[in-house]
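Human: Can I borrow your eye for a moment on a structure tokenisation matter? Separate attempts, laid side by side, tell us more than any discussion would. Could you pick a protein and write out its sequence and tokenised fold? No explanation is needed for now; the record alone will do.

Assistant:
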Amino acid sequence: MKKLFVLTLISIFITFEIMSQNPTSTFDWQGHRGARGLLPENTIPAFLEALKYPVKTLELDVAVSKDLQLIVSHEPWMSHHICTKPEGVAVTEQEAMSLKIMDLTYDEIKKYDCGSRGNERFPQQKKMAVYKPSWRTWCKQSKNTVHRIMWKCQGSISK
């Protein structure tokens, strides 16, 4: 553990040393799931917030919905850490993995609030009612942005 910590510190030092010598460096600042420390992760508000900083790339995850829409979501299900069901009750840990994105249509997904509860890992994160957007919805607002996409798959899709 101590070696990992030392290696991390060395990596950070080298990165900042290189950047201080060349401020126009090609270092790729990435918004991991948007600005998830400030706004609900993998949401349009979080991505737009990340782009206010020197972020060049947005890292995001996508899963495929029942109606074959690409949905921006870290997990291929509704997370019990952040999501609330349409009736206003928090998703429980026991049921989270049964609420698979591949089993829900985009219209059904939009009824889940994945921001009002906040995220206990990010106490400064602003709480707001927000849903998991489709890739198409995000692309309509995304201009000149590089994306690093991770595909989240679970099960099979048939039409």
Residues 9-14 have pLDDT under 50 and may be disordered. The beta strands are 30-32, 57-64, 70-72, 146-151.
